[in-house]
Amino acid sequence: MSEPVYLTTIAIFFGTIFMIYLIRSQTNLKKAQLLAGNEESYRAIAERAVAAQEQTAAALADLQTRIIAIEKVLKEVE
Q1: How far apart are CA 17 and CA 13, in angstroms?
Q2: Exposure check for the chain: N or C terminus, fewer CB within 10 A?
Q3: CA 45 → CA 22, 31, 36, 41, distances in Å?
Q4: CA–CA separation, 65 vs 63, rounded Å?
Q5: Distance of alpha carbon 19 from alpha carbon 33, whole angstroms
Q6: What are phi and psi of 39, to 5 degrees?
Q7: H/E element holding 22?
Q8: pLDDT at 38
């Protein structure tokens, strides 16, 4: 085998390995970016859920104070 053919074959072989490495690293990078995006959306959903729970707790506390006042009025009427 002549030297240019040998060097070309070696270059193609290592070039293929290098291209596979680049493609796999780009794929892993894209997966990491997608997972980070998913985590951000889950975090936003969790924050909205916490805010809704806080609002519900505040409304419940308000209702409890109103019920206590109504019970007091009803006891006075009796």
Answers
A1: 6
A2: C
A3: 35, 21, 14, 6
A4: 5
A5: 21
A6: -65, -40
A7: helix 3-77
A8: 84
N-terminal to C-terminal alpha carbon distance within the chain: 113
Q: What is the pTM of this model?
A: 0.52
In this prediction, residue 24 has a pLDDT band, given cuts at 50, 70 and 90, of very high
Q: Return the SS3 of 1.
A: coil
Average pLDDT score over residue span 8-13: 94
Distance from the Cα of residue 35 to its chain's centroid: 7
Cβ neighbours for 37, distance < 8 A, ≥ 6 positions apart: none
